[in-house]
Q: What sequence folds into this?
């Protein structure tokens, strides 16, 4: 448990990596969704689904939740809520703040907030472990100037995180750690390991597999859910392409307009920069005069994109004001022509498998499910790189179970894949048995493994607190960490290739359990266990609350 907790809470702080992630992720959050965070525009919403002050039917409220969660996650690089888990964290934060209100947990005063900020690992010097003013200034300046996060916004997120931390502590109570687990964690961390890994490529395994009709029908009968078609919906896209509105741009740009556009987007014209005079030198800086023609063309296209966005909003507004329904095909088609949209059909899709169309925001596809039982049938406009898009709900396609003949090709493909995997596993198991027998007889692991077609890797020795990344991948260390010297792991089949891990040597140190450093380690384990329990309970409360209003992706 404790070993997993250490990984889960990213015990070794990656403060620099966190700062770099802000460049990518916060920018992504600011641009994701039908409209930019700070864009206006006209929106039309169906009935609200209130989640402690946030309307889950409001794209603006969703973006606000996710942005605050992303900022918080970056300020807490030890947090388990990273990457894809940020959306989950957004709901947890909202629920925690509501609970903080119920518990009467106040916002921190100035001294409390300063102490909290100084304790955040994102602002600490990685060498000294102390608060670093320069790091704090660099990060806050970046958030303000590059990501558009104001000081007051950042201050608000920090104050919210302070209160959330109090909620987690309150839920966790005094905390508890089984003594054996803490001691086991310390022994594992201070032990020295020398291992070898062996990898057998799956791609080279090509057995002859020729199933007959009975094999395929039996496979289909045993796996009906694999071929069941879930409930799906059919929608159409109405795209408003900027290219269609170039002629609608009547205002001619001034020199200031063009220079401003150039300065904001100078990186786009770097290919026009002067070539370096000598090999190895960096290219010169691109000049406005050299890029002026392209700048003017891009400026005009940007204006056309804004017109496309306006037309998409006018299109939705007109449907709303006219009170059109999903049966008003002729009237809707007339509005599409009037506002310059282009219609395209989209293959029906299920809740968990929206179309992989990168030009349309995924959350727009997800939002269409709320219109199944609604009189409204059109989405809010969503910005795209080339203008805007609106989705129109057409119909629900009921779930059904296709017959064997309809999916026979898929059944054949799945059967062959599964049978190949089974045979591969059997082969590796036999190879392992032979390998273990010969290693126990005195032969070297590497020599025998290579003879049997494995590719052997021999990483440097390490201690339990510094597991190599190559072993963390593919669940290698997870399957090998309890091996004793001279033992070979079971066959590990994470996805494609097969693996074995050989524990060449494992050295366990003598530990003074009364030592101050040891006592501090065990105390830290109790703190981590307590924090983990608090987050688990908060997650359960959040899940129950969400069930009452329905999930985000209906």
A:
């Amino acid at each position: 448990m404790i070993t997993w907790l250490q990984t889960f809470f990213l015990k070794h702080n990656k403060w620099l990596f966190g700062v770099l992630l802000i460049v990518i992720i916060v920018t992504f959050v600011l641009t994701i969704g039908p409209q930019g965070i700070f864009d206006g525009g006209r929106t039309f919403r169906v009935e609200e689904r209130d989640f402690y002050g946030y309307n889950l039917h409001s794209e603006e409220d969703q973006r606000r939740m996710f942005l605050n969660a992303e900022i918080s996650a970056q300020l807490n690089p030890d947090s388990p809520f990273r990457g894809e888990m940020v959306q989950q964290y957004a709901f947890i934060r909202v629920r925690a703040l509501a609970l903080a209100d119920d518990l009467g947990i106040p916002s921190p005063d100035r001294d409390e907030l300063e102490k909290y900020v100084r304790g955040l690992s994102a602002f600490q010097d990685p060498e000294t472990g102390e608060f670093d003013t320069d790091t704090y200034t660099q990060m806050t300046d970046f958030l303000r100037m590059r990501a558009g996060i104001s000081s007051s916004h950042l201050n608000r997120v920090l104050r919210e995180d302070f209160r959330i931390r109090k909620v987690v502590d309150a839920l966790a109570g005094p905390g508890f750690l089984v003594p054996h687990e803490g001691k086991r964690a310390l022994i594992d961390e201070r032990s020295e390991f020398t291992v070898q890994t062996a990898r057998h490529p799956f791609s080279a395994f090509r057995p002859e597999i020729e199933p007959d009709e009975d094999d395929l029908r039996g496979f289909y009968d045993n796996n009906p859910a694999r071929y069941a078609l879930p409930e799906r919906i059919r929608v159409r896209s109405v795209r408003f392409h900027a290219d269609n509105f170039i002629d609608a741009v009547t205002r001619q740009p001034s020199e200031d307009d063009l220079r401003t556009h150039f300065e904001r987007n100078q990186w786009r014209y770097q290919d026009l920069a002067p070539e370096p005079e000598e090999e190895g030198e960096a290219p010169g800086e691109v000049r406005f005069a050299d890029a002026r023609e392209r700048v003017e063309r891009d400026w005009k296209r940007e204006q056309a994109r804004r017109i496309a966005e306006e037309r998409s909003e006018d299109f939705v507004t007109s449907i709303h004001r006219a009170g059109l329904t999903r049966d008003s095909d002729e009237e809707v088609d007339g509005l599409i022509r009037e506002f310059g949209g282009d219609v395209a059909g989209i293959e029906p899709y299920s809740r968990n498998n929206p179309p992989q169309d990168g030009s349309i925001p995924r959350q727009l596809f997800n939002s269409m499910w709320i219109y199944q039982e609604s009189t409204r049938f059109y989405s809010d406009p969503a910005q795209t790189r080339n203008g805007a898009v609106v989705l129109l709900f057409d119909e629900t396609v009921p779930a059904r179970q296709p017959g064997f003949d309809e999916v026979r090709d898929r059944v054949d493909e799945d059967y062959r894949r599964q049978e190949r995997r089974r045979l591969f596993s059997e082969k590796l198991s036999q190879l392992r048995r032979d390998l273990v027998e010969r290693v126990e007889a005195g032969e070297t692991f590497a020599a025998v493994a290579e003879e049997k077609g494995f590719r052997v890797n021999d990483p440097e020795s390490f201690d339990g607190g510094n597991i190599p990344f190559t072993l963390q991948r593919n669940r290698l260390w997870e399957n090998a960490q309890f091996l004793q010297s001279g033992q070979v792991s079971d066959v590990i089949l994470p996805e494609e290739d097969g693996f074995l891990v050989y524990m060449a040597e494992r050295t366990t140190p003598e530990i003074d359990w009364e030592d101050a450093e040891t006592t501090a380690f065990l105390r830290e384990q109790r703190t981590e266990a307590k924090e983990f329990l608090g987050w688990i309970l908060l997650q359960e409360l959040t899940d129950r609350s969400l069930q009452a209003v329905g999930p985000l992706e209906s």
Observations:
- The radius of gyration is 30 Å.
- Residues 192-225+407-507 form one domain.
